[in-house]
Structure formats: structure tokens, C-alpha cells
TrEMBL record, chain A:
This is Potassium-transporting ATPase KdpC subunit. GO terms for molecular function: ATP binding; P-type potassium transmembrane transporter activity. It comes from the Bacteria. The gene is kdpC. HAMAP family: KdpC (MF_00276). Keywords: ATP-binding, Cell membrane, Ion transport, Membrane, Nucleotide-binding, Potassium, Potassium transport, Transmembrane, Transmembrane helix, Transport. The system is composed of three essential subunits: KdpA, KdpB and KdpC. The lineage of its organism: Bacteria, Pseudomonadati, Pseudomonadota, Gammaproteobacteria, Pseudomonadales. The keyword ATP-binding applies. It is found in: Cell membrane. It comes from Pseudomonas reidholzensis.
TrEMBL record, chain B:
This is Potassium-transporting ATPase potassium-binding subunit. It comes from Pseudomonas reidholzensis. Pfam families: KdpA. InterPro entries: KdpA. Signal peptide: none annotated. The chain crosses the membrane at residues 6-28, 66-91, 134-156, 177-195, 253-274, 286-305, 375-400, 420-442, 487-513, 534-557. Its main location: membrane. It is found in: Cell membrane. Keywords: Cell membrane, Ion transport, Membrane, Potassium, Potassium transport, Transmembrane, Transmembrane helix, Transport. HAMAP family: KdpA. It is a multi-pass membrane protein. Part of the high-affinity ATP-driven potassium transport (or Kdp) system, which catalyzes the hydrolysis of ATP coupled with the electrogenic transport of potassium into the cytoplasm. This subunit binds the extracellular potassium ions and delivers the ions to the membrane domain of KdpB through an intramembrane tunnel. One of its GO terms (molecular function) is potassium ion binding. Belongs to the KdpA family. The gene is kdpA.
């Protein structure tokens, strides 16, 4: 029995040392040197140096003067993240989408883009497709009393076009740019 | 489908297929102890491990010794992990002061990570400390994959060797698989992921004041190092609760490509490793063609299905397009479906979209991929040894059809081998149908489903399929964190892992002992399109047909009732 016991225990401990301690420490060391911003959570600061969020984590925004991120099944909770896990056949999904669509629908804009009515996988989706941002521009323009055209220019500038993925807009970055352009009346 | 969708698919297949012949040869050299460019760096570490553990590297094991060593090592790993999870509240590196896990959850989690399943009945950021993530879960991510690789090379040696009594040394195989096979690739992937935005820090969770003036906690941690091995080791257990749907776990379309390709990078390469063991790369190509065909059939079905708008939303004021419930904007439909198909074809089980919200037939492809026993590339090592079992069954069936003793690469398949093959065929039905039926027929456990109708049954079916296939993904609305399901799913994972490993090692021992008959004119060739087709049909009929009735009750019934 000891022929198996000693190698089993000592290799379990040695592998713990190598893969559980040395490896994550090495990755942390290199990452903190090479990519400190990303390694620490892509945090976004304001002029006073306060942390205002992470570029990668959606924030709840519900005022008329802000662009709203995708709906979150977990109410934008970060600990723990969560999804609706509603099946396509679950009547609760159709009920929620129908009710939300009725609230967001604008006759001049046509039917509501799907991403504004469906909850994301993480509940923290930081992006929106450009058409879902465009749908919100009349509301934001009215609330901030600026021409819609300026918002459309802002949107075009903020749209990312990855070669291998759909075009997206980072909602937090967009809202920050918006705040710089036309601060909301306090 | 847009141009970026085609670009994604093209890039994916290029990353997994182009380096495979070279990487497969690298794995052969590493596992046979030959010198590679990594030897000057890792050689001293490897020899140091043997010295401290009292392992004599040149001493080989017969199949029973190999099995005992494997079981002893897995038991030691299980006990260490179980203890860490129970006691994490008293251990350091726990900035959020998370308490220890409840016994049934700790048992489930420990079995889950030791068996390379990585089923998660918990949410990482809310219930596992940094220490448990590293010293507990990351370690098992590595060594469970290394264990799979060790079993595979033992079987390869069994097929390749003639009149031999030994299969190699488990300690050596496991150590080499970890150090050379997994660590270097993980280091590269982890840094690529940090570059794209995955956190890697030991700092406490950050606190932010949002633009609208509310407080937000931002969870952090040594995530990239664990996510790299979770993808490459076909483990799949997320650092964060929603796995690779979490923007910190998978921040961009590019990180999505790197992660999804990493799932099958090693399993594809290992098909070529097998060819080097048996000195016949035509065998590798036949197996790879079969795996690719099954992957493409499932992939095309899932892509078509998931691009259909949900008829239940027809009456709402919504721009109808491919459903986005449970999906992330940055991946879109194709990036999500590619992941779903890959993660279930390989026994990875990480997700970047919520499988519960997929269209019914997309969910069915995910289940079917698992039900055939995770042989479409499959887990590291585990996928190919599962596939080789099907190869032997196909050879046996061909032997029955043409009326001669079946033989594979000169090795005759006799009563003992066929008994072992049949034993391995029982694993999936026992885990899915028997354990699943028990869970479905008890009112308490069946109450864990969160969706009504046929989809509720699919949730339970998915859970027991995923556990037995050692996949680990879920229809995540299923409330699995109860004592009953924690214990039963742990049992399913245990059967699904060791129910294969034991017959495979016995088979390897039995094949190694045989002398090899020279291939004659009348031997049934096990390469070329004819054999590939036979293998494909065998997998679908022997592996898949058993489960067709359950799929009819779940996803097919849901599909029809929705009126697609």
C-alpha cells in the first residue's frame, strides 16, 4: 500500500505547489507588469480619482438622460451574477417581453430591438448593438436638450467593429462621453 | 449570418486544425520521455518531483498497478479538495470571508473537479475563496486532465505494444502531462486573456460609485490563470458564476475565439498522437474525419435552429431576429452557438450563453453531443479513449458482418475484450436513464426544475446527462444545490469517470499482452471512408439511439409545441 501512498500524496502536494501556487503567481506577476489596467479589472476613474465602475461591467441606468444597458435578470447584481434561465417556451418570457416592449415602444421608431427586451447571460452585459443605442437616442436627446444628430455622431464614433464578432457599443463609455458633451441638469 | 460570423468560423477551424499534427507529435514525444525544446526548463522540475515523491521513472506498471496508482492519486486529490472547501472559512487568502461549503456541496464540488466534470452547484464569486480557487480547483483542473491523458497513452501503448505486460508508469505520465502538456499552453492563454481584459489580481473586490450615483461591488481575483486551464483542460468550471458569459471571464469577441478554440485544441491534437503510437497516421485521419463529421452535423443543426425567431414572441412589439435571451451582445448568435456545440462535443461544460434559454433543437444538439459519450473530440484524453472504444465496437460489428475474427491493428478482439467494451457501453444509460429516472420520479427532487412543460423534463435530463458524460454544463435554472441532487449527481459523475477508466485500462492490459498478427490481404482496413462511415453509424446507433425517446419527450416535444 505504501508503494502507492507516498507517490500519491507527495505528487498531489507537489502538483498543488506547481499548478496551484507557482503558476497563478507567475501569471499574476507578468500580468501586473504587462497589462496592469486589465489585470485589475479595467476600472474607470473620474477627474477626482474616484472609481466609477469597470469598463466591462454593466451599470444600472434608468434615468431618461442616460443610455440604458441590457436588462439584467439579477438586477445588475455582481455578487453573484445571474441569468433568467427562462426557456423559450416559458410563458413568463413572452409575458415579460410583451410588457417591456409596450413600455419602450415608440411609434416613430418602430418595433423595439430585441437586445433591449432580453436579459443577457451574465446580467452584466456591458455592450449594446448599435441599433439598440440608436433606438434610445430620441429619448436621451430630449432629456438632455441636445440635437439627435450629435448623439448619432457620438454613437458612430463609439461603435466597435471586431473582425470576428458583431458590432457593439460600450454603454458605460458612451454614457461618460455623453456626460462630457452635455452634462445632465442637476 | 454576417461576414464576421464566417470569419469567426474560419478562424476557429484554422486554430484547432492547423497546429494539430505538430502538437500531436509534440504530445507523443513528451509522453514517451523524448527531448523537446521545453526539456531544459522543465526537465529539472520533473526529475525533482520524482525524487521528492520516491518515484522510479523507469519502472513500468502493469494495468492493475497503473489503475491502483491512478485511483490512489485521485483519492488523495479528492480528500485535499474536499478538506479545502469545507475549511476555507478558516484558511488564508479569503478576502471576502466566505464560509466553508456545506458537506453535500463540498462533496459534489470535489467529485466534480476530480472527475474533470466541473459541474457547479455554486456561484464562484459568492462562495469560493481565492485560496480554494487556486490550491483547490485550479490544481484539480490540471491533474484531472492529466489523468485523462495518462489513461489515453496507456491505451495507445496497449494497442501498439506486442506481448507486453506493462503500460507505462502512471506517476510519470501524469507528471509529464501536467508539466509539459498543460502548463506552457496555459501560461500563454492566461496572458492572452488578461490582455483582453480578464482580471488577475489578489486584491479585494473593488467598490465603485456608478454614473448614476449608486454603489457597485466589482468582484476580482486570480481569474485568468484558472480560466486558461478550465478551457484547455476541458474542465469548464467557471471562476465566476455565469462562467464565460461573464464579461470578466470572457471580455471580447477575441477572447471568445481564444477560449472556444482552446476547448478542443488538445483533443484534436491527441488524435495525431495516437497515430504516432501505432505508427500509422491514416488511423488518425479516419478518426478525425468521423469526429469532424459529427461536429459539423451537430453544428449546422444548432446554427440553423438558433437563427429561428421564437414564435412565442410574435405578438409583442419586438424586432424579431435570432433569440438573445441569455446571450451576450459581444458574441451574438454564431459566437454563442459555436461555443455551445464545442463545449458539449468536448466534455468541457463551460458556457458563454445560458443553455436553458436556447431554442429547443439547439439544446437537443448539446444533449446529443453528450449522450454519445463525449467522443466528438471529447475531453483531454477521455474523448479519444472513448472514441477508441467505439472504434473497437465498429471493428467487432464489421467482424460479425463479414464472418471473421475481428482484429484492430493486428490485435484480435476476443471474448474478454468484447465484455469490457459492453461494460463501458452501459455507463451512459445507467447514469442518465436510471439515475435520471429515479430523480424524475421522486416529487421532491423533480421539483428542482424551474421551467414548465417539456422543458422542465429537459432540465433534469440535461443535468444527469451532463454529469454522467463528465461535461458539467447545465440548463442552469435547475435547482441542483440540494442534498439529493448533490449526492446523486456526484454519483453520476463518479460512474461516468471511473466506469470508463477501469474497463479502458483493463482493455489496454489485455491488448498489450497479445501478440500482433501481420495485416493480411483479408484484414478489414480501419482507415478510409468506408470505415469512417461505419464508425459514424456505430456511434449514432449504439451510442445515440438509446436516448432518442428521452429527447422526444424533452426538446422535440418543446420544439413542436412552440410551433416553429
Amino acid at each position: 500500500m505504501t508503494t502507492y501512498l507516498r507517490p500519491a500524496l507527495s505528487l498531489a502536494l507537489l502538483m498543488t505547489l506547481v499548478t496551484g501556487a507557482l503558476y497563478p503567481l507567475a501569471v499574476t506577476g507578468i500580468a501586473q507588469l504587462a497589462f496592469p489596467e486589465q489585470a485589475n479589472g479595467s476600472l474607470v476613474h473620474d477627474e477626482q480619482g474616484r472609481v466609477r465602475g469597470s469598463r466591462l461591467i454593466a451599470q444600472e441606468s434608468n434615468g431618461d438622460g442616460w443610455f440604458h444597458a441590457r436588462p439584467s435578470a439579477a438586477a445588475y447584481a455582481t455578487v453573484a451574477s445571474g441569468a433568467s434561465n427562462l426557456a423559450p417556451s416559458n410563458p413568463a418570457l413572452a409575458e415579460r417581453v410583451t410588457a417591456d416592449a409596450a413600455g419602450l415602444f415608440r411609434a416613430d421608431q418602430g418595433p423595439v430591438p430585441q437586445t433591449l427586451l432580453t436579459t443577457s447571460g451574465s446580467g452584466l452585459d456591458p455592450h449594446l448593438p448599435p441599433e439598440a443605442v440608436a433606438y434610445q437616442t430620441p429619448r436621451v436627446a430630449a432629456a438632455r436638450q441636445i440635437p439627435v444628430e450629435r448623439l448619432q455622431a457620438l454613437l458612430e464614433e463609439a461603435t466597435l467593429h471586431p473582425l470576428i464578432g458583431p458590432p457593439v457599443v460600450n454603454v458605460l463609455a458612451l454614457n461618460q462621453a455623453l456626460e462630457r458633451m452635455a452634462p445632465v441638469a442637476k | 449570418m454576417h461576414s464576421y460570423d464566417y470569419a469567426l468560423l474560419l478562424a476557429f477551424f484554422a486554430i484547432v486544425l492547423l497546429p494539430a499534427p505538430w502538437l500531436g507529435r509534440f504530445y507523443y514525444k513528451v509522453m514517451e520521455g523524448q527531448r523537446t525544446w521545453l526539456s531544459p526548463i522543465l526537465g529539472p522540475v520533473e526529475r525533482g518531483c520524482y525524487r521528492l515523491a520516491g518515484v522510479r521513472a523507469e519502472q513500468e506498471h502493469n494495468w492493475k498497478q497503473y489503475t491502483l496508482a491512478l485511483l490512489a492519486f485521485n483519492l488523495a486529490g479528492f480528500l485535499l479538495l474536499f478538506a479545502v472547501l469545507l475549511l476555507q472559512g478558516y484558511l488564508p487568502l479569503n478576502p471576502q470571508q466566505l464560509p466553508g461549503q456545506d458537506w453535500s456541496l463540498a462533496l459534489n464540488t470535489a467529485v466534480s473537479f476530480v472527475t474533470n466534470t466541473n459541474w457547479q452547484a455554486y456561484s464562484g464569486e459568492a462562495s469560493v475563496s481565492y485560496l480554494s480557487q487556486m490550491l483547490g480547483l485550479t490544481v484539480q483542473n490540471f491533474v484531472s486532465a492529466a489523468t485523462g491523458l495518462a489513461v489515453l497513452v496507456a491505451l495507445c501503448r496497449g494497442i501498439a505494444r506486442r506481448s507486453a505486460s506493462t503500460l507505462g508508469n502512471f506517476w510519470v505520465d501524469m507528471t509529464r502531462a501536467t508539466l509539459y502538456g498543460l502548463l506552457p499552453l496555459c501560461l500563454v492563454l492566461a496572458l492572452l486573456l488578461v490582455w483582453q481584459g480578464v482580471p488577475q489580481t489578489f486584491a479585494d473586490y473593488a467598490h465603485a460609485l456608478t454614473l448614476q450615483g449608486t454603489d457597485q461591488t466589482i468582484p476580482l481575483g486570480p481569474a485568468a490563470s484558472q480560466i486558461a486551464i478550465k478551457q484547455l483542460g476541458t474542465n469548464g468550471g467557471g471562476f465566476f458564476g455565469v462562467n464565460s458569459a461573464h464579461p470578466f471571464e470572457n471580455p471580447t469577441a477575441w477572447s471568445n475565439l481564444f477560449e472556444v478554440a482552446s476547448i478542443i485544441l488538445i483533443p484534436v491534437a491527441l488524435v495525431f498522437t495516437f497515430g504516432h503510437y501505432v505508427k500509422d497516421l491514416r488511423q488518425s485521419r479516419a478518426i478525425l474525419a468521423c469526429m469532424l463529421s459529427l461536429f459539423l452535423i451537430g453544428g449546422a443543426t444548432a446554427l440553423w435552429s438558433e437563427h429561428q425567431p421564437n414564435p412565442a414572441l410574435d405578438s409583442a412589439q419586438v424586432q424579431q431576429s435570432a433569440p438573445m435571451e441569455g446571450k451576450e451582445s459581444r458574441f451574438g448568435t454564431t459566437g454563442s452557438v459555436l461555443w455551445t456545440v464545442t463545449t458539449t462535443a468536448a466534455s468541457n461544460g463551460s458556457v458563454n450563453a445560458m443553455h436553458d434559454s436556447l431554442n429547443p433543437l439547439t439544446g437537443m444538439v448539446a444533449m446529443a453531443n453528450m449522450m454519445v459519450g463525449e467522443v466528438i473530440f471529447g475531453g483531454v484524453g477521455a474523448g479519444l479513449y472513448g472514441m477508441l472504444l467505439f472504434v473497437l465496437i465498429a471493428v467487432f460489428l464489421a467482424g460479425l458482418m463479414i464472418g471473421r475474427t475481428p482484429e484492430y491493428l493486428g490485435k484480435k478482439l476476443q471474448a474478454r475484450e468484447v465484455q469490457l467494451l459492453v461494460a463501458s457501453l452501459l455507463v451512459m444509460p445507467v447514469g442518465v436513464l436510471i439515475l435520471g429516472a429515479i430523480a424524475a420520479s421522486l416529487p421532491g427532487p423533480a421539483g428542482a426544475v424551474s421551467n414548465p412543460g417539456a422543458h422542465g423534463f429537459s432540465q433534469l435530463l440535461y443535468a444527469y446527462t451532463s454529469a454522467t458524460a463528465n461535461n458539467g454544463s447545465a440548463f442552469a435554472g435547475f435547482g441542483a444545490n440540494t442534498v439529493f441532487h448533490n449526492v446523486m449527481i456526484a454519483l453520476a459523475m463518479f460512474i461516468g469517470r471511473f466506469g470508463y477508466i477501469l474497463p479502458v485500462l483493463a482493455l489496454a492490459g489485455s491488448l498489450a499482452a497479445k501478440h500482433s498478427a501481420p495485416l493480411g490481404q483479408n484484414s478489414f482496413p480501419t482507415h478510409g471512408p468506408l470505415f469512417t462511415s461505419l464508425l459514424l453509424v456505430t456511434i449514432l446507433l449504439v451510442g445515440g439511439l438509446t436516448f432518442l425517446p428521452t429527447l422526444a419527450l424533452g426538446p422535440i416535444a418543446e420544439h413542436l409545441s412552440l410551433g416553429f
